[in-house]
Write a structure and sequence with these properties.
71 residues; mainly beta; OB fold (Dihydrolipoamide Acetyltransferase, E2P); four-stranded antiparallel beta sheet; 8 strands; 0% helix; 54% strand; elongated
Length: 71
């Protein structure tokens, strides 16, 4: 499952690494926009197979953030 940005923002924190096991609703990253922090959550349990951003990156709406595959 591809987790994508919902808006233009900067990547404040990346909280997972490739190979990490995550649970549904676990925070994967934090985006920052207009002085607000927007958590990026996993939609299901699985394993992080790709982290496509780094802290400090700018993402546009629809940009890939993380890929989570079924465990």
């Amino acid at each position: 499952m591809e987790i994508r940005a919902e808006m233009v923002a900067s990547v404040g924190k990346v909280l997972v690494t490739e190979g990490a096991t995550v649970r549904a609703d676990e925070e994967l990253a934090v985006l920052e926009s207009m002085k607000m922090e927007i958590p990026v959550l996993s939609e299901s349990d699985g394993v992080v197979t790709r982290v496509a951003v780094a802290e400090g990156d700018t993402v546009a709406e629809g940009d890939l953030i993380v890929v989570v595959s079924a465990a």
